[in-house]
Specification:
The chain contains 17 helices and 27 strands. It is an alpha+beta fold. The radius of gyration is 35 Å and the shape is elongated.
């Protein structure tokens, strides 16, 4: 083995670790060497597993280092401490030669992950195999080699068993994912046994609320199992539910004298006697060599205590559990139970946030627009779920609304604000407001939500959130778009290059009063076959690129979507090709392919606001409906409907009148536009009252009707079922 280099000779992780050995290994005296050898012999004699026994708690940690190349072969090692005696770290040999066979796949994945990402893998409990067949339990960290060197440095700390409690608790508390938390706990338990399993109550696994169960009623699911190896047929592995009888037996066994307690079954005959039938033995016993087991309840400290699950540690017959080990096991499980419950709470929040966001995703496209959307949270835990949302929905007057937004922050506060803004936008658009008017209302809502007294969540601010709203008219094939601080959509016309729209920047929602500017409406043509991409910044932001380069990459990816490509598959492909591997923000994309109405399904007339306008409209509509082959009763209803709407426009609004008739899949859509700004209202008129009777007729003839506002006045629309 290489000698320890000088700290000044190199700054690589290997040399830094090696230079620290002098702080822990007394060198140069025979007494120190003899003491070290005696310690190593004592460790192996007192603990067949090779870990340092409880009597050695006062002994300092012993540090070693192994350098690996990119093929995971040993290039250098510094394992001079006596406790590492028997570890044959031969230069040129695979590092996996030091591992038990069943640990090779898991550790290899970790080593390669650090090679690929550069992210350190710190302080995981690991077994190493000595040449005499015994094992040494260490805390292992994996570090990327410092440039310009390549490869890895693996640091090893041989610790007293009690120090595993600290190392294990530190490792277990690093994730809010329920599966990763259970896996970290199981890996830490390998210091006490050959196989470790964590079985959680289904309510914990799914993040639901946990309450005290009636005696013996608990359903367990395996959340973690180590080491990673091929298991016997019938044995319960990760993600599988324990047999109901097994769950009941474990629950009854650990709850004795009405309090959760650890259970020790020392040998195979006792295990078979307790389980009672061969099927349960196959489901719970990991192999023929497993002779004894300790079952420790994961208990939430409450009144009364609530059992979250059961931890099982299995050993061979030649390694019975002693009282000190049982005490350490129970202490570790007790210390980490709150981490499991914390992960459960975050799992519940994560599920709630995702359920809310999925509810806001578009369900189906309309008859005139085909849509597809993709949403990917930044991280699997609830803290990483942000306030991105997309929505597309047909408006009552035949147009289609496309909305994308990005609420500041993450978690439930952002998700709740997102839900409120999304629903408010949908309601206002359905009521006929233009996109810029909707953004004005959303701007005021965000300002009010930031008020600490009346806000949605104390301590959370949505100021700076962004939103983009586009409304597509399938008759004119034009889109009206307004943006509040959002990145510009990308348009791909049927003929022509893809490019971001030239939308004027805006400071966003909830800006200070002095910074507020009126929201503008950007109108552009989108002929049938056009593709519009709305997205959030997580899709185009990359630390290695400017935001403009990211948008250009998106435009290039969207331009490669062919007209015959299935839109959902195309959306997933665009996201896969653009989204950074290490996302810092949610990724959201909405693709909309315009279809519109055929020219033969629409007709538009402009009439002067004169007394004969209603008669002229009746003649034109009657002739058109005859050409369309409409039923006589429906034709009479539509003619009467248009006559009443035109009469009201002449009587109350004035100015030029526009009549538009659209043949849709489920009926006919009638529109009458005028220059007035008054809102028609359906009142409770008396039998002989003349005013307002026209709207009552409209109400009875249609399935729904409403008003939308334009720059020159308003449009009253009404739908008649065919």
């Amino acid at each position: 083995m290489d000698s320890t280099p000088s700290p000044s000779s190199s700054s690589s992780p290997f040399d830094l670790v090696s230079s620290a050995l002098g702080q822990y290994i007394p060198r140069g005296t025979a007494a120190a060497a003899a003491a070290g050898a005696a310690d190593a012999q004592g460790d192996r004699a007192s603990d067949p597993g090779g870990s340092v026994d409880g009597a050695a708690e006062g002994r300092e940690q012993i540090l070693g280092a192994v350098n690996l190349d990119r093929e995971l072969r040993i290039t250098r090692s510094n394992l001079g401490a006596p406790v590492f005696a028997g570890l044959e770290a031969v230069t040129g040999s695979p590092f996996t030669d030091l591992l038990p066979p069943w640990d090779v796949p898991t550790v290899t994945r970790r080593l390669r992950h650090v090679l690929e990402t550069g992210e350190a893998h710190v302080a995981r409990v690991q077994r190493l195999r000595r040449s005499d067949g015994s094992e040494l339990v260490v805390s292992m960290s994996i570090l990327a080699a410092a440039a310009p060197q390549e490869g890895l440095t693996v640091s090893l700390i041989a610790m007293a068993r009690r120090l595993h409690l600290y190392a294990a608790e530190t490792a277990i508390g690093t994730s809010l994912d329920i599966g990763e938390t259970a896996q970290s706990l199981a890996e830490s338990l390998l210091a006490w046994g050959d196989v470790a399993a964590v079985d959680l109550d289904l309510a914990v696994w799914t993040g639901e609320g946990v309450t005290e169960h009636p005696h013996g009623r608990i359903r367990l699911r395996r959340a973690a199992l180590v080491p990673d190896r091929a298991w016997p047929e019938g044995y319960v592995t990760v993600g599988q539910d324990l047999p109901l009888d097994a769950s009941r037996l474990l629950a009854q066994a650990i709850r004795r004298d009405d309090a959760p307690q650890a259970l020790v079954i020392p040998h195979r005959r006792a295990i078979e006697r307790v389980l009672g039938n061969p099927q349960l033995v196959r489901a719970l016993v990991p192999g023929d060599r497993s002779a004894g087991v300790v079952c420790v309840p994961l208990v939430l400290d409450d009144t009364p205590p609530v059992v979250l699950g059961v931890v099982e540690v299995w050993r061979r017959a030649d390694r019975p559990f002693d009282d000190g080990e049982l005490f350490d096991l129970q202490e570790l499980v007790a210390r980490t139970s709150h981490h499991v419950d914390l992960a459960r709470r975050h799992q519940r929040e994560h599920t709630q946030v995702l359920a809310l966001q999925r509810r806001l995703l578009p369900r189906v496209g309309g008859d005139t627009v085909e849509t597809a959307s993709v949403y990917q949270p930044a991280t699997p835990d609830s803290a990483g779920v942000g306030g991105d949302w997309v929505n597309s929905f047909p408006l009552p007057d035949g147009r289609t609304a496309l909305v994308v937004g990005d609420v500041v922050g993450h978690g439930l506060g952002a998700a709740a604000t997102m839900g409120q803004l999304s629903m408010e936008a949908r309601a206002l658009l359905s009521a006929g407001l233009a996109p810029d008017e909707v953004l004005e209302h959303l701007d005021e809502t965000v300002t009010q939500l930031d008020d600490a007294e009346s806000g949605l969540a104390a301590g959370y601010s949505a100021l700076g959130s962004t939103c983009c709203i586009a409304v597509y008219d399938p008759v004119s094939h034009r889109v009206a778009l307004s943006s509040a601080g959002h990145l510009p959509p990308v348009l791909v016309p049927p003929e022509g290059p893809a490019a971001p729209l030239a939308v004027r920047p805006h400071p966003g929602l909830g800006a200070e009063f002095a910074l507020r500017e009126p929201f503008e409406v950007h109108t552009f043509s989108a002929p049938p076959g056009s593709l519009l991409a709305l997205y959030t910044d997580g899709l185009v932001e990359d630390p290695a690129l400017s935001i403009d380069e990211g948008i250009d990459r998106l435009a290039d990816a969207v331009s490669r979507v062919h007209p015959w490509d299935a839109l959902p598959q195309a959306a997933r492909h665009v996201v896969a090709s653009l989204a950074p591997a290490r996302r810092r923000d949610d990724v959201t994309l909405l693709l909309a392919r315009t279809i519109g109405y055929r020219k033969g399904d629409t007709a538009t007339w402009r009439l002067p606001a004169r007394d004969d306008a209603a008669a002229r409209a009746r003649t034109l509509v009657h002739a058109l409906l005859e050409r369309w082959g409409t039923r006589s009763d429906l034709r009479d209803s539509v003619v009467l409907l248009v006559s009443e709407l035109v009469t009201n426009a002449v009587r109350y609004a004035g100015g030029p009148i526009t009549v538009r008739l659209i043949r849709v899949g489920h009926g006919l859509l009638c529109e009458v536009g005028d220059a007035g700004n008054g809102r028609p209202r359906l009142g409770r008129n008396a039998l002989l009252d003349d005013g307002g009777r026209g709207l009552h007729i409209v109400h009875r003839l249609t399935t729904r009707w409403g008003v939308r506002w334009t720059d020159t006045g308003k449009v009253v629309w009404a739908e008649v079922a065919r």
